[in-house]
Amino acid sequence: MTITETQQGNAKVVGVQGRLDAVTSPEFEKKLAAIVDDGCRQLVIDCSALDYISSAGLRVFLAIAKRLKNVQGTIVVAAAQTQVREIFDIAGFAAILPIKSTVADAVQG
Amino acid sequence: MLTFAEELFLLALDDRQGALRPMPVLALEYALAGAVVTELAFHNRVDTDLTHLTVVDPTPTGDLLLDGVLKELAAEPRQHSLHAWLESLSDEARQIQDKVLHQLMARGILKCEDRRILWVFHCRRYPLLDNHEIKEVCARLRDLILGEDIPTPRDAVLISLADACRLLNHLLSREERAQAQPRINALAKLDLVGQEVAKTVRNISQAIALAAAGAP
Lengths: 109, 216
Known about the structure:
The complex is a heterodimer.
Chain A: E1 2-8, E2 11-20, H1 25-37, E3 42-46, E4 50-53, H2 55-69, E5 74-78, H3 82-90, E6 99-100, H4 103-108
Parallel strand pairs in A: 2-3, 2-4, 3-5, 5-6
Antiparallel strand pairs in A: 1-2
Helix pairs in contact in A: 1-2
Chain B: H1 4-12, E1 13-14, E2 19-20, H2 27-42, E3 46-48, E4 53-55, H3 64-75, H4 82-90, H5 93-106, E5 113-117, E6 121-125, H6 132-146, H7 153-164, H8 174-189, H9 192-214
Antiparallel strand pairs in B: 1-2, 3-4, 5-6
């Protein structure tokens, strides 16, 4: 798993590449938590290079969405590939966080 | 902190009777199996997706119940679906339930009482010694269901498993339940293991209903 970070306007765009599973999720969660603790209130996760997400990966999104809501922040999932988007849909994550087709849409909010 | 299986068992226990509440057939068995699998996932020992359950780290957790199941999962050379493992572990639900009961008694939360009905029939009851834990669990889940907060990953699991056992009914009035049903459905979906437990319990209930309808 590779994590990248860019600033686009007010949004911090975090790209995640590879697999998000029980092995890689702790590192990803630690990274996102640190970004929120550093003051980020608009977080966009660019999932365009994410090939796979397991239950452990989904739990990271839930935990960070809660962490951000507690500080009046938002997290947006962007550009997920079909197989990853399907997992978010089956788990009903659209009920708790916005899921956008492109990073540009996500940054606009 | 209580485990998923312990919290689920306390939700399933009718405090006034000291016995389990009525639940759909095999619901508690599958939910307890799901609770143990998810607890192992929170310890980063297993992971699940839509098709499989994978052991990622066979190192014991130090919890007797979890480690027994982890050993069983790790010993299987072939990868199996989550559904297959839930089915297999639900066969051991009696042993899981006994271990959970012992853990709750060891924590001083409930005690075991043997009674006789009409001086003949033996029956075992589990009255609560300390209802602080169960009150806290009920209040937490009620607030979450009736509010708009995002659940913690742990609470999402518990809501999903409790809903599969129809145990959330006892936390809400009839009016609240009707109003909160869409929110309960949304929260219960967030956990994939809970979803699989709910689907299996639903299928079993439907099969029983069909069999009953077709009976002469």
